[in-house]
């Protein structure tokens, strides 16, 4: 484990961590938002960011400071903390953004790192190449080579206690992103920004963003603090945290405010379109939309910026509580409903379910089945994967109903969509305690059928009968042919009333039938 980053709670690949920033003498709890402070434009002063918004880390641009004579002299003279009047940690960017924007800059990694050290930066950045999405592979590779050299120069530089970023680029090529992540992770640098995702987010390509971050994360170790560079819209924070991003920076709060735009967790509104303010922050409780529209442009920008920051910090707190409660996926699912592009992002996240599954805690408080996507959560994949530890013998009834009277079967297992079959003794273990709606969708039944299929595969000598409650054809088609199918109503008529009694499980936990089942229940909840 890296000694400056300590992981506490986790949910999915998201985590609550503690990033020690030795030069600032502070420890930052992650996920954290770094408000972007433009040294030329004082929208909300750093002192207010600290006292009113609770910001304990911010980001500003060392290249802007270096190329402005007045700012440069002041920063070198009194240091960044005094110049900005901020006591938390200060990260500085290097000019890479300007390089991407204007094609050239007048500095090198060696020089800009020395400058960052001289002005009192706590977390510095080398000059990497932010390669935009969709470029030719050759360009992405050439750019990566330059970024790799920048990281080598940064490793060679004398940076003292200052932490140094190791940006991960690679455009929209997942294999390059993964390789870049692995390379950055192997350096002795400290914080790992995933770069050049802003063009994807601006174009609402949240699925591409998810693929880029997931690839970078595969290369980076679990203990690497990851910064999603340029990401700070509250709508996408839960998704990004679920992927394992720890740091975010927001220029959006100020840039959008300048443009009359109002951020919410469901997207962006234009002040001119708002008749009501759907927020309880100090600004939205004190002012009406008309008040804001009537304010002078400077004041309006200021008030909107404050609201934008409040709503962003509030979302981060909500996300952290969700990690503590183990229901981050439910929050991601909720946010995914705010825009079709967010739904694409969420579905892309579920494409990486095996990757998430490795970090997702095995046991949580609750699993709420809230949409057909819930059928593809890591818990379902994990349950299917563990079929290889569940031993079934003789003739086993897999049923959505209760245990039948009589001795037609050697064992009776429950079947619960979306998980599939399991011995009754596991009924009270996570995630089989999931809250599932009465009106299930096709995905849930199809996933349950996959579970049946896995169980049959792992136990070729056992015979199975599946008593299902009106499963759709698409699910039944996924059940292996060797399994005898019966509808629940038929089974209950033939075997006695008890068989149709739903949820009679508690009584069945110590049922003699279960002794035939050598399910490894301890192993199931241990990992
Ligand atoms: Zn507000």
UniProtKB/TrEMBL annotation:
InterPro entries to which the protein is assigned, alphabetical: ArchSynthase1/Queuine_TRR (IPR050076), TGT-like_sf (IPR036511), TgtA (IPR004804), tRNA_ribo_trans-like (IPR002616)
Q: Which GO terms describe its molecular function?
A: pentosyltransferase activity; zinc ion binding
Task: Give start and end of each tRNA-guanine(15) transglycosylase-like domain.
Answer: 14-340
Its pathway, per UniProt, is: tRNA modification; archaeosine-tRNA biosynthesis
EC number assigned by the record:
2.4.2.48
Its function, per the record, reads: Exchanges the guanine residue with 7-cyano-7-deazaguanine (preQ0) at position 15 in the dihydrouridine loop (D-loop) of archaeal tRNAs.
Which positions bind Zn(2+)?
Answer: 279, 281, 284
- Protein's recorded name: tRNA-guanine(15) transglycosylase
Q: Which cofactor does it need?
A: Zn(2+)
Which sites are catalytic? 93
Print the keywords alphabetically: Glycosyltransferase, Metal-binding, Transferase, tRNA processing, Zinc
Which residues are listed for substrate binding in this entry? 128, 196
Name the segments for region: Disordered: 485-527
Record's keyword annotation contains Chaperone: no
């Amino acid at each position: 484990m890296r000694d400056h980053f300590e992981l506490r709670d986790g949910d999915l690949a998201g985590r609550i961590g503690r990033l020690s920033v030795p030069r600032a003498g502070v420890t930052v709890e992650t996920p954290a938002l770094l408000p972007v402070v433009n040294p030329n434009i004082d929208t909300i002063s750093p002192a207010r960011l600290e006292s009113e918004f609770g910001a304990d880390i911010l980001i500003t641009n060392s290249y802007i400071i270096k190329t402005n004579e007045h700012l440069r002299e002041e920063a070198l003279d009194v240091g960044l903390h005094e110049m900005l009047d901020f006591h938390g940690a200060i990260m500085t960017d290097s000019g890479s953004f300007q390089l991407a924007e204007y094609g050239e800059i007048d500095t090198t990694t060696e020089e800009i790192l020395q400058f960052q050290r001289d002005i009192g930066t706590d977390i510095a950045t080398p000059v990497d190449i932010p390669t935009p999405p969709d470029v030719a592979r050759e360009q992405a590779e050439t750019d990566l080579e330059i970024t790799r050299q920048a990281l080598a120069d940064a490793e060679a530089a004398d940076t003292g206690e200052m932490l140094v970023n190791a940006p991960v680029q690679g455009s929209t090529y997942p294999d390059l992103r993964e390789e870049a992540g692995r390379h950055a992770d192997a350096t002795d640098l400290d914080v790992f920004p995933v770069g050049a995702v802003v063009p994807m987010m601006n174009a609402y390509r949240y699925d591409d963003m998810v693929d880029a971050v997931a690839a970078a994360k595969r290369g980076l170790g679990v203990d690497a603090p990851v910064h999603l560079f340029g990401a700070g819209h509250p709508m996408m924070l839960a998704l990004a945290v679920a992927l394992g991003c720890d740091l975010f920076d927001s220029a959006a709060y100020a840039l959008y405010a300048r443009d009359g735009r109002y951020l919410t967790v469901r997207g962006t509104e234009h002040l001119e379109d708002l008749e009501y303010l759907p927020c309880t922050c100090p600004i939205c409780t004190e002012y009406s939309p008309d008040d804001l529209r009537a304010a002078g442009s400077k004041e309006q920008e200021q008030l909107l910026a404050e609201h934008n920051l409040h709503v962003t910090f509030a979302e981060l707190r909500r996300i952290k509580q969700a990690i503590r409660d183990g229901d981050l996926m439910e929050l991601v699912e909720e946010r995914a409903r705010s825009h079709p592009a967010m739904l694409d992002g969420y579905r892309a996240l579920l494409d990486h379910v095996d990757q998430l599954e490795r970090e997702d805690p095995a046991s949580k408080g609750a699993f709420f089945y809230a949409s057909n996507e819930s059928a593809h959560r890591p818990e379902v994949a994990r349950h299917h994967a563990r079929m290889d530890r569940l031993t079934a013998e003789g003739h086993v009834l897999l049923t959505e109903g209760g245990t039948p009277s009589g001795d037609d079967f050697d064992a009776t297992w429950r079947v619960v969509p979306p998980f599939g079959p399991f011995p009754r003794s596991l009924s009270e273990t996570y995630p089989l305690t999931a809250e599932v709606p009465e009106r299930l969708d096709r995905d849930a039944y199809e996933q349950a059928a996959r579970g049946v299929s896995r169980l049959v595969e792992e136990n070729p000598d056992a015979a199975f009968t599946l008593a299902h409650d009106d499963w759709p054809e698409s699910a039944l088609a996924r059940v292996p042919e060797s399994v005898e199918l019966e509808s629940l109503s038929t089974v209950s008529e033939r075997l006695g009333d008890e068989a149709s009694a739903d949820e009679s499980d508690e009584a069945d936990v110590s049922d003699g039938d279960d002794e035939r089942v050598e399910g490894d229940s301890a192993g199931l909840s241990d990992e």
